[in-house]
Amino acid sequence: MAETIRTSEKPSNSSSLNPPSRIICHVCQKQFSQYTCPRCNSRYCSLPCYKSHSIRCTESFMRENVVEELRHLQSDDRTKRKMLEILKRFHSEDETEPLDEDVDDSILSDDTIQKILSGGEVNINDLSLEEKKRFQRALASGELSKMIEPWDPWWLKPAARTICLSKDGAQLIQPMANREDLESDQPSDIPCGPKTPLPSLHKLISTEPSPLLAVHLVDIIYSYCFTLRVYNGDWQSDAVGSAMVVLSISSVLGQAGQPETVQEALCYCLEQTCSPAYRHVGGLQFGLALVDDITNLLSLGSPALICMLCDLQKMIMAAGRELKSKKQRKLRKSETKSKLKLAERKVYFIMCWVHEQPNKALSSLAAIVSAEKSSLMEYGGNKSFPRTEKNVAGNKGKALIEEM
């Protein structure tokens, strides 16, 4: 008996004695329908037919899914704004580029996209061989990077020059009436300062602080700027990975090193930037641009530096919390936790030290860093840097911060 073709929308009861009937796509009227629109129950055969069957229907369906997903995420306003901006940008690109059914240059097949639209999770193993090839080509050509909006460092924004903290270094309390105005100007891009007052150095150590702390600050600033630029400003997406990058770049935080000059500190950081592990990021030119970031942060004064160090402390503490939930070998996990704990103490100590430094001293340090960049560019032209291994290996036995 020939298979029955139906065009009505009434469901049919199928059984072993009554084979299921097939319904023609309501859009193209050529292919058998495979899917049903969740909004109007219209039957369609492919993604192009789904997009063209009803603009009002597809937009309302996507909007409801986004709103529902945002509810489950329980994210902050900043994350919601980013999500909406991505959706608006994607929608505008979709309108400016008309659909050409004769050319299929999409990375994913219709079935895979349909699975994503239905709420299913898709990973690299779910893709077919052809889809994997398309994905790798798009990744290598930089096509996927166009979907990521370049991050604008917060220390380069005008609002960074107006950061205000209390006399004890803690963040100021904002009036409730001004919260909406603050959100409209997006000051949340700038990290907040400490919630509690910073103690005096005399309460943390019994001796005078080391004169090398200014050099160590340069090392820490470089590692922070490096990590945020690599993660496009979003270290929260991978706190453990971000903290590990900081420890690998900074000799002070990751190797218990104590560089004695600004040149030694910068050379070690540039060596790590040009190493095989991070060479793909940008090499020497990227590292020299980070030196400019150090100068900019130092020129902003102690409030901006305290906010930066507070953000770095939050990153390290978040990495410690995430590490507890991850399954790793106990020995390796214990070593990483010890490194993170020591690094967090050093960052907090440097934060208290910066709070007591006059802006004039920080400006002088910025001038020294700027002058060192010129000499480092000469070394960079010869593909060599002053050796700094003695600084790392020879000072491992020394403690930068006394136990509190």
Notes on the protein architecture:
The chain is mainly alpha-helical and 404 residues long. It has helices at residues 47-53, 55-73, 77-96, 110-117, 129-141, 179-184, 201-204, 213-230, 239-249, 251-254, 262-273, 283-300, 302-325, 330-355, 359-381, 389-393; strands at residues 5-6, 22-23, 35-36, 43-44. It has a two-stranded parallel ribbon. A two-stranded antiparallel ribbon has the order 3-4. A hairpin with a 6-residue loop joins strand 3 and strand 4 (43-44). Helix 9 packs across helix 13 (302-325) and helix 12 (283-300) packs antiparallel against helix 15 (359-381). The longest helix is centred in the C-terminal third of the chain and has 26 residues, at 330-355. It starts with a strand and ends in an 11-residue tail after the last helix.
